[in-house]
Amino acid sequence: MRIVLLGPQGAGKGTQAQRISERTGARHISTGDLVRAEIKSGSELGETIKDYNDRGELVPDEIIIQMMRPYLDEADSWILDGFPRNESQAEALDEMLREIAAKLDAAVALEAPDEALIRRLSGRRTSEATGRIYHVEHDPPPQSSEEDPGPFIQRKDDTEEALRRRLRIYHEHTEPLKDYYAERGILATIDATQRIPDVTEGVLEAVGEKA
Ligand code: AP5
Q1: What is the reported pLDDT for 146?
Q2: Does residue 13 have an active-site annotation?
Q3: Does the annotation count 165 as an active-site position?
Q4: Which of 31, 154, 198 to mutate to test the pocket of ligand 1 (most atoms within 8 A of CB)?
Q5: Of 39, 68, 66, which is closest to residue 53 (Cα–Cα)?
Q6: Is 69 a catalytic residue?
Q7: Which of 9, 48, 104, 170 has the fewest CB atoms found within 10 Å of its own CB?
Q8: What distance in Å separates the CA atoms of residue 110 and residue 122, rounded to the nearest whole number?
Q9: DSSP 17-32
Q10: Catalytic residue among 155, 156, 165, 210
């Protein structure tokens, strides 16, 4: 399975990629997680990309492509969460696929209105220990530290100002990728305002139909 998850901030790309990875064994590759890990490591590259992340802007294409490429080469089966984000990244992905003689099975777009996403993201919490994504209301962090010790933190780029900027960039640069993949006959769209498990079933069904 090789799929791309598209969708605005908070649509549930990370949540669904984790669930689908657990169900299918496909590797979850999140460029956002790679960016946050690099920043946390304190490396020079991390310093360079920190401001982009915190302001809610895209990290330059050449940096993000260089960061994710090794993960693509390592696994046969994967779910890309947060990549590609614009047409030049989509073309770079096509080129990488040609080089490894592989094809993309589906691009799944998770759709929800902006205002619902801004409300939703104020409740997001991420486990510092496991990276798992929770929501204070819809998917609360566990009480027992054996299951996940936490702490459960709010992301730096989840301020309303950064969020509105991220959504603006999404509509301008990433949303047009729906046409890019529709033209190739591999686009599926899913209503991401449904319950989390219902979205998962919708994604798996859509991928099954396209593959
Ligand atoms: P990234 O980490 O990819 O952030 P994002 O695209 O802004 O997406 P989010 O993680 O905010 O949303 P999500 O759709 O994954 O939602 P989630 O599952 O968490 O990127 C961060 C930064 O890195 C970028 O701004 C940029 O700087 C850089 N970057 C990354 N990739 C890049 C690239 N390719 N090029 C350049 N720069 C790049 O869910 C959100 C919340 O909602 C959670 O609390 C969850 O529990 C809850 N939830 C999920 N689904 C549902 C549901 N159906 N019902 C109710 N609650 C739900």
Answers
A1: 87
A2: yes
A3: no
A4: 31
A5: 39
A6: no
A7: 48
A8: 19
A9: HHHHHHHH--EEEEHH
A10: 155
What does each C-alpha distance from 11 to 4, 101, 117, 152 come to in angstroms?
A: 14, 31, 7, 20
- Identify the three-state secondary structure at position 140: coil
The CA distance from 90 to 180, in Å, is 8
Answer yes or no: 184 catalytic.
no
Number of separate domains in the chain: 1
128 lies in some domain: no
The answer to whether position 14 is within a domain reads: yes
User: Mean pLDDT for each consecutive 10-residue tract of the chain (211 residues)?
Assistant: 96 96 96 95 95 92 94 90 97 94 95 92 92 92 90 88 91 97 97 96 89 63
Q: Are strands 133-135 and 124-127 parallel, antiparallel or unpaired?
A: antiparallel
CATH code for the domain of 189: 3.40.50.300
pLDDT of 178 reads 98
Q: Give the amino acid at 163.
A: L
User: Does 70 reside within a domain?
Assistant: yes
Distances (CA, A) of 210 to 95, 110, 177: 21, 16, 17
Give, as one character, the DSSP assignment of residue 139: B
Look at residue 91 in the predicted model and tell me its pLDDT: 97
Query: pTM of the prediction?
Result: 0.93
Among 13, 61, 69, 161, the mutation site with the greatest number of ligand 1 atoms within 8 A of its Cβ is: 13
